[in-house]
Amino acid sequence: PLGLSDTMAQLNRVIWKNTPADRFISFFLAVLDPVRGQMHYVNAGHNPPLHIHGTRVSTLDKGGTLLGIFEHATYAVGTRPLQADDVLFLYTDGLTEATQANGEEFGLDRLRTIVATSASGATAQHVIDAVDGAVDAFALHPELEDDRTALAIRVRHVG
Fold first, then answer.
1. What is the pLDDT of residues 22-72, one digit of tens each?
2. Which of 39, 58, 69, 63 lies closest to 108 in space, CA to CA?
3. What is the pLDDT of residues 101-127, one digit of tens each?
4. Helices 107-119 & 124-138, crossing angle to 10 degrees?
5. In angstroms, rounded to a whole number, what is the distance separating the alpha carbons of residues 82 and 51?
6. SS (H, E, C) the chain
């Protein structure tokens, strides 16, 4: 797991050397270990994924800067316990930045609420469908918005 930090630093250097100065990549890398009931992760400037345990929602924000910005960037590794029925929800900013006619964005608070309430005992697909439906109902022109990508993972068992 601590090798994740070195892996991200090496990946960052490759991107820094091979990408124009005005380009960068947001990136999230996780290693799930259901046998030990742990997840090790690094977030390189991506929207912080959500970890839902029961009714508690927390963000996975440990890591570092976007890939390709600084040649010698360093990345911290986060560790989270995983238990049966936990949900991991990864998403792009097209979900949180979907807007209404008055310019109001869907936002992280709404996303956290929808994910938390839809995750209880449901499938990962149900969580994605609930978020997608809520954003569609909220947004002025959902088909014209930024990309909306989501991935939900439900932990079935640990150990």
1. 999 999 999 998 889 999 999 999 999 999 998 899 999 999 999 999 999
2. 58
3. 888 999 999 999 999 999 988 899 999
4. 140
5. 9
6. CCHHHHHHHHHHHHHHHHCCCCCCECEEEEEEECCCCEEEEEEEECCCCEEEECCEEEECCCEECCECCCCCCCCCCEEEECCCCCEEEEECHHHHCCECCCCCECHHHHHHHHHHHHHCCCCHHHHHHHHHHHHHHHCCCHHHCCCCCEEEEECCCCC
What whole-number distance in Å separates Cα of residue 43 and Cα of residue 62?
A: 6
